[in-house]
Amino acid sequence: DAGVIQSPRHEVTEMGQEVTLRCKPISGHDYLFWYRQTMMRGLELLIYFNNNVPIDDSGMPEDRFSAKMPNASFSTLKIQPSEPRDSAVYFCASRETGSPLHFGNGTRLTVT
Amino acid sequence: GENVEQHPSTLSVQEGDSAVIKCTYSDSASNYFPWYKQELGKGPQLIIDIRSNVGEKKDQRIAVTLNKTAKHFSLHITETQPEDSAVYFCAASPWGDSNYQLIWGAGTKLIIKP
Q1: Is the CB of B34 less than 8 angstroms away from the CB of A101?
Q2: In the prediction, which pLDDT does A97 show?
Q3: Angle, CA of B35, A7 and B100, to the nearest 5°
Q4: B113 vs chain A: nearest CA distance in angstroms?
Q5: Rounded distance, CA B93 to CA B23, Å?
Q6: For residue range A11-27, what is the model confidence (pLDDT) as tens digits?
Q7: How far is CA A46 from CA A6, A54, B15, B59, B84, in A?
Q8: Residue B49 is nearest to which of A100, A103, A104, comparing CB atoms?
Q9: Are A93 and A102 in contact, with CB atoms under 8 Å apart?
Q10: Chain B residue nearest residue A108, CA to CA
């Protein structure tokens, strides 16, 4: 099992640019989560999906953030336009019903 | 809603000594309490978890204890080693709900001094 796979590992972009983060969950997992981690705010849940359907996006900071899950093996988190305050590590995590959560190794985003 | 407090924020112990990290939670409906370890440059990894029908669970050098009456749970690491240096997160959630959500503590940075 390759675990949760995220790409890219690092992303550096200029303010105003569009950023797309990608995630491949563990095969068979029916829940997928996007988290953001910063020193100031810790681990924040942005959005989660169940069977590819968004269930709760109340953690998405604002309309600049959007997430999709077109199929069971792929999800994207998009920021458009990006701002310096979006700089953080973004984690994708997945689990199956009744099992613990597994995290990817994250994407470190720097917006200059 | 649920709120989880974790302390200390930083813990420095001598190699070979024990380390204890404590968390308190507010929602009495919570019944699942995992602990995650995050090493530098990696995502959090589950190291041990406990459900509210048990008071203690052990896995080699790590153990977790739960006091439901007082609404607190603790992580114990014995005979600490350099590779135990990391950030540890506790979390709480109602497990019975298939849509369970983890509420996270703020994390404890554990430093093992050689």
Answers
A1: yes
A2: 85
A3: 35
A4: 23
A5: 13
A6: 999 999 999 999 999 99
A7: 16, 11, 37, 32, 29
A8: A100
A9: yes
A10: B41
Q: What is the pLDDT of residue B54?
A: 81
The tokens for A104 are 């990817």
User: Which residue matches tokens 């406990």?
Assistant: B50
A44-91 pLDDT tens trace: 999 999 999 999 999 998 899 999 999 999 999 999 999 999 999 999
Give the whole-angstrom CA distance, residue B106 versus residue A111. Answer: 24
The pairing of beta strand B10-14 with beta strand B108-113: parallel
Would you report the helix, strand and coil content of chain B in percent, each value rounded to 5? 5, 55, 45
Buried b / exposed e across A79-102, counting CB within 10 Å, b at 16+?
A: beebeeebbbbbbbbbbeeeeebb
Q: What is the pLDDT of residue A62?
A: 84
Pair of tokens at residue A57: 């996006």
Q: Look up tokens 């613990």; give the residue.
A: A100
**A58 Cβ under 8 Å from any chain B Cβ:** no
Instruction: Give the minimum alpha-carbon distance from B12 to chain A in angstroms, rounded to a whole number.
Output: 19
In this structure, what token pair is assigned to residue B97?
């709900």
pLDDT < 70 stretches in chain B: 95-99
In this complex, the residue of A42, A56, A103 whose CB is nearest that of residue B43 is A103
How far is residue A42's CA from residue A88's CA, in Å, rounded to a whole number?
10
Q: Do B34 and A43 touch (CB under 8 A)?
A: no
